[in-house]
Amino acid sequence: MQSNRKVMVTRRRRRRTREQKPKYFIYLGYMLLGIVALILAGIMFMFLSAVGGAYALYDSFAQQLPDPTAIETEQEDFETTKIYDRTGQVLLYELFDPYRGDRSYVKLNEIPEFCREATITLEDKTFYDNFGFDPEGIGRAFWQNLQGGQVQGGSSITQQLIKNILIDEEERTQLSYTRKIKELILAVEITRRFDKDQILEWYFNTNSYFNLAYG
Known about the structure:
Largest sheet: 2 strands, antiparallel
Low-confidence stretches: none
Structural class: mainly alpha
Number of domains: 2
Order of helices and strands: HHEEEHHHHHHE
Number of helices: 8
Distance between the termini: 112 Å
CATH architecture of the largest domain: Orthogonal Bundle
Helix content: 55-70%
Oligomer: single chain
CATH class of the largest domain: Mainly Alpha
Number of strands: 4
CATH topology of the largest domain: Penicillin binding protein transpeptidase fold
Strand content: 5-15%
């Protein structure tokens, strides 16, 4: 009789164990899901915090920079002074600042296509696709500078335009990351406000071609 009771008790214990196993795995599954959810929530919080911090830094920095729309009004003072006869057709005199060069404004459609294509290929091959700066060019220049090679700027056409027009003359010759950050932020803002053809036209008319020739 005792042996039969032991057998029955053993069977009951086994049955209870089998009944408890599914609950254990369910609890374990819930626990793992909770841990994963907490990890994902932490990653999301860190990501949103980083994005918010970056935007706040961007906004704070941007407020201290020149007005991007000033690049449009600056073009008015860029040309040399030209004096025509009373008919307005014959040029009598052309006065220019020897330090600023001889500057004549030319529309983009008046510039030969091969000249436009060559400039984009050499200076900023992603000009019509980027947001005012070339990440690949900046990364390449940064890596080259870290290796102690020839100092490179990695500036896009838009950044070069900004340096020529909106950056103070004393700061233009400085090789600093602060100036590059300024150019990058302004490049993004100008790209948002103006179309690419207009930016390219301004670039051609403000870029130095040496021997006091601009544009």
